[in-house]
Amino acid sequence: MVIDNFGWPICTQMWPGNTADVTTLTPIAEKLNNRFHIDKVCIVADRGMISKNPICELLKIGWFYILGFKMRLDKELRTVMDDDSGEYEEGVPERSKSIDPAPLKVKEVVVNESRYIIFVNEEEARKDRYDRDKILTSLAAALKKG
After folding, report:
1. CA distances from 138 to 4, 53, 58, 81, 128 (A)
2. pTM
3. 17: domain range?
4. Is there a domain that residue 107 lies in?
5. Dist CA 73 CA 127 (whole Å)
6. Is residue 23 part of a domain?
7. Does residue 77 lie within any of the structural domains?
């Protein structure tokens, strides 16, 4: 679905269920240019839409974009995550009630003229560490048993 800056739908597009998300970005970009003469766009997409071709298309068209990445899959993103410069700012504080929003820290990193905004959910990081430790303990016990 494509919406304007007020949240009103401009157009929708349906594809067969077996269509890879990554293949849908370029046709929508062309449709917006050709049919609606829209020239200022910000694409917001999750990691299912990410590959080099759509990113190159966005750069070629000159559109703004916000893309969600899986950190461990990209070498440049590893560089971004390992960047020690700058401090994280508290975006959302630790929860006091379970219904409160998830706590987030945020910082900006620029690498090779690309701007990255990193969000860290410390609560989720603690849970991941706990889960990993449980798995490692279980594996160590299994190895001892042969």
Report:
1. 51, 42, 46, 29, 15
2. 0.58
3. 1-68
4. no
5. 21
6. yes
7. no
Residue 122 token pair: 């410390």
pLDDT at 119 over 90: no
pLDDT tens sequence across 2-48:
888 888 988 888 889 888 776 777 787 778 878 888 767 787 877 66
Cα dist from 85 to 44, 57, 71, 74, 93, whole Å: 26, 31, 18, 20, 22
- Residue from 21, 27, 78 nearest 50 by CA: 21
How many whole angstroms separate alpha carbon 41 and alpha carbon 59?
Answer: 12
Q: Give the 3-state secondary structure of the chain.
A: CEECCCCCEEECCCCCCCCCHHHCHHHHHHHHHHHHCCCCCEEEECHHHCCHHHHHHHHHHCCEEEECCCHHHCHHHHHHHHCCCCCCEEEECCCCCCCCCCCEEEEEEEECCEEEEEEECHHHHHHHHHHHHHHHHHHHHHHHHC
Structure tokens at 121: 């959910």
* Closest among 42, 58, 52 to 76, alpha carbons compared: 52
Residue 64 maps to a domain: yes
How many folded domains does the chain comprise? 1
